[in-house]
Amino acid sequence: MPEPSGRPPWRIEPALERLSIRLLVESRETVLIRCDACPHVARWLPDDLKQRFRANLWATFARIAPRLRCQRCRSEWVRVSFDRPPAPARGAPNASQPP
């Protein structure tokens, strides 16, 4: 388990930090919750977000982050990010362009 430091136990992707849950649901974004203490990764689909936060859809992840925990080990050391494919490496051929 990570050692305590001066930072809070959660990390939120900067682009995700200020968006409300409602905007994420409307834009059909999927969110990943990665645990720093174990290899568990949770994928929250828009319908999952809507169900989990139906009473507080205007909340942001910056506001709910102190309550986030890993579903497997219950650690509060988590990372929150969008579920998007990684950007291609520089110089790598683009899959959308023919070779």
Description:
Helices cover 21% and strands 17% of the residues. The protein is α+β, with helices and mostly antiparallel strands. The chain has one domain. A hairpin with a 5-residue loop joins β2 and β3.
Strand % is: 15-25%
Order of helices and strands: EHHEEHHE
- Counting DSSP E segments of at least 2 residues, the number of strands comes to 4
DSSP helical segment count:
4
Structural class based on helices, strands and sheet pairing: alpha+beta
Question: Which of globular, elongated, flat, extended, rod-shaped describes the shape?
Answer: globular
Strand order of the largest sheet: 1-4-2-3
Instruction: Profile the largest sheet.
Output: 4 strands, mixed
CA-atom Rg in angstroms: 16 Å
Count of discrete domains: 1
If you average the pLDDT, what whole number results?
85
**Terminus-to-terminus distance:** 45 Å
Flag low-confidence runs.
none
Into which percent range does the helicity of residues fall? 10-25%
